[in-house]
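== Polypeptide entry ==
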Amino acid sequence: MDQDPTATVGIGNDPFLPRPERKPDASDKNGAMLAWVVHQPGPIEHGPLQRIERNLPSPGPGQLLVKVSCCGVCRTDLHLAEGDLSPRRPDVTPGHEVVGRVRALGANSSRFAVGDRVGIAWLGRTDGSCRFCRRGEENLCVDPLFTGWDLDGGYADACLVDEAYAYALPAELDDEQAAPLLCAGIIGYRALVCAAVPPGGRLGIYGFGGSAHLTAQLALAQGLTVHVLTRGEANQQLARELGAHSVGGVADDPPEPLDGAILFAPAGELVPGALRALDRGGTLAVAGIWLSDIPSLNYGRELFNERRLRSVTANSRHDGETFLQLASRLGVRATTVGYPMAEAPQALADLRNGRFSGAAVLHN
């Protein structure tokens, strides 16, 4: 459901300049809230985000109004802000790793009650009737809507969600811990499934950010051998701390052939080397929604012997529910860095420049 802006409140040409502001609550009597929007996509240092005042949205039938406690910072948000992904509509609010409390219910809403803690993830709506939805593959729906791309997301004081696409969250995880699980964790889980590593097999992970460090924990807990290939000493050190069997640079070869691999880094130039690292019949799953161009592939060196290259387009709600249960049972925990919601551009810039390991989380 679109939210109409009432008055734009810019922050000047410096995207990191603090702006004096009131701190509206989702129950403000004046019905207003603050939200970041992608106003003019471009390099994050040029200020593509603006913080504006908007009317607090009212939930429609089957919807929840959620007061946002925190929202994880995903690389997809960066791609959206910088224009690698074209915004689906003007001034959309990013953010799809949202944790908050239900503040109001739309008509016919019955899954949750006011005050319940819920999670909001990337998949915001599907048509339910296309050939893919009918056969249980809603991740391939031909007419989906995505949180923070089509629908306003969690870089705001509050947002809406169709209750059928909201998640109950494990009680043992606090809000900051839960937020990265809602995209980084879920899509990493789907990528691990798509990589089709057999029990006890060998998994390669290329790139080691917010999603990869959760996926590695899941793979290790399931008894896989995990080899991490990533840039940055902080990311490499985190991989070692989490128990990776080997850690190297992105241009290195793993110490043994891989049964499957996941490419988390949005770098198409890594695809040929990752394919060559696969054993016969191995699969390379590309986990990102955006990837730079892939160089030409040599059939004999990189694809022969039934090596496979596949994309991970989106997750289903079943993926989300399954991953959250596994994360709770297996003790998967996010390494997080917190930022105030007012510093969303800085968090994205830090992500862009690799200034932290793990996952960033914005707090209201």
In short: The first helix runs from residue 75 to 82. The chain has ten helices and 18 strands.
